[in-house]
Amino acid sequence: MRPRLADKEKRTIVVRFLMTKEEKIRLDSLVKRGKYGCASDFLRFKIFDESRRKTIVLDDKASNKLKSLDYELNKIGVNLNQLSKRMNSFAGYRISDSDRQLLKQAFAMMRQCLILLQKYLR
Asked: Fewer CB within 10 A of the end CB, N or C, for the chain?
């Protein structure tokens, strides 16, 4: 027989949401694979288990660096879009020296961004 719970421990509020048949099948599969007693236990674990969550707190210096990184990544995207447009606009297009220079700059920027990300996210 199951032990009685104190009033504070009883779960009395029902939360209801809709899902597709495929989503329900997937949920049932995750519940069984995780060896949870029921879908409620699985969902509570996924929502409230703080030990599995990773929180990154940034100081002002790191925040400014990441904003700069975002700006640099945007510039890289613009450069790559320009190259793609040129290459796709002409059937017989050959890469010129200026295109090679743009590719080198984009590669150098991406490398700097990667180094910065590795520094702050490890």
From this structure: N
Give the pLDDT confidence of 13-36 residue by residue, as tens digits.
999 989 999 999 999 999 998 888
Question: What Cα–Cα distance (Å) separates residue 96 from each residue in 69, 92, 104, 109, 117?
Answer: 28, 12, 12, 20, 32
Domain range annotation of the chain:
11-52, 60-121
CA distances from 48 to 15, 45, 53 (A): 15, 6, 9
Single pTM value for the model: 0.41
Task: Enter the tokens of residue 25.
Answer: 């099948």
